[in-house]
Write a structure and sequence with these properties.
The complex is a heterodimer of chains A (128) and B (361). Chain A has 128 residues and is α+β, with helices and mostly antiparallel strands. Chain A has a single domain, classed as Beta Barrel (OB fold (Dihydrolipoamide Acetyltransferase, E2P)), CATH 2.40.50. In chain A, 19% of the residues lie in helices and 33% in strands. The longest helix of chain A has 9 residues. The two termini of chain A are 14 Å apart. Classes of the chains: A alpha+beta (128), B alpha+beta (361).
Amino acid sequence: MSNVPGDLKYTKSHEWVRSEDDGSITVGITDHAQSALGDLVFVEPPEAGSEVSSGDACAVVESVKAASDVYSPVSGKVAASNDALADSPELVNQDPYGDGWIMRVQANDPAELESLMDAAAYEATLED
Amino acid sequence: MGNRTAIYDAHAEQGARIVDFGGWDMPLHYGSQIEEHHAVRTDAGMFDVSHMTVVDVQGADATAFLHRLIANNVDKLKTPGKALYTCMLNEDGGVIDDLIVYFLSKTEYRMVVNAATREKDLAWLEAQAAGFDLQVSERPDLSMIAVQGPNARDKAAACLAEEDRETALSLEPFVAAPIKDLFVARTGYTGEDGWEIIVPESQAEDLWRAFADAGIRPCGLGARDTLRLEAGMNLYGSDMDESTTPLESGLGWTVAWEPEDRRFTGRDRLEAQRKEGVPRRLVGLLLEDRGVLRSHQKVFVDGIGAGEVTSGTFSPTLGRSIGLARVPAGVGDEVTVDVRGRSLMARVVRPPFVRHGKARV
């Protein structure tokens, strides 16, 4: 079974979101997503300073099997991206909610986070 | 639920992620496709390939039948157990399937054909056999396990009865022998040494578990695909099919032109193509930039035209992307490939990319 931490928010497209103390959010892909993709071989996070829009593709994760887009859960500015993934894409497989984070975003409208799913709702989508 | 091999329960216990493959529920990987890939390149791995179809051809006309049926020539096989890789063609020279045929005697051959093409292959064999004195028998009672890697034969031999080990270990490359209930062939689809072992269904799971206990790592179809592509081996349905001839598929070496009076099915078309010049060829591509080649990506040959990637992947051994592509015959040393909207450079190389654990490009 996939690991779905209770303190995070989720999207239907299998991103997770963590609210940080400084008001930014951290975004990654869920354990379910990394497991379905298999071993990752390339990750292209967005550049720090770039603008991302809610629901738009902002990063690419590519596994041995296939390439997938990562969609931004909110609109805002990329505060940081995980440079370690360039050399170690497997971090996403090994630690999707920790060292495998993809980007940190300063959201334009924090209220956007309200529309995301909680862990129970996300878990329910995995059972369908 | 699809068909399940006799080893299915062991896969489930070993943590396999199961996917549908041509109607069969098969392991994709058991946790990490890349680790499985490296296990085969550096040590020993095994694959359940029981979904593949074993067909025995027996009878007075068996040799004459195969002279007609396949593009390679079974007369090259002089000693019992010797194997031959070949294509089976339609009248237009298109590839119906690729297969391995084992010579047992002039009246007895064993063939292994693909799983996804089983029904059309069996129908074709039956139709082609008309008028020949022989029997074509599918062997659904047999399973197949491939053990591959530099240590695979030693580890697998330790699981055989002591009196059988020497026979098995003395098999030359591309030779098979019956050993008690097993049929052991020194063949494979990975570019490494190893055996493909045909085993009665009732014994398959025990043999698989014994191999696992001997330190042979279970590997799924994912690693099988990256290994075969590194080894420069074609996959039927991706790299060739009924719309392509062997000459357009990097398989000219499997066509036996001599003797000229052996009129195998599809020969007229291949001869015409050879005379006119083959318009397209299958080449290896090594991606220079970051990204991954995938099948159906467009390939541009400067000043000549376009082609298509037929198989592409990330090569775990080389740490970059490789692929096979069908391109206009006049292709040079470099092409560009449309990889998800980006135009990336790829070098044209001659497969294999990797053989016996070593990079060849």
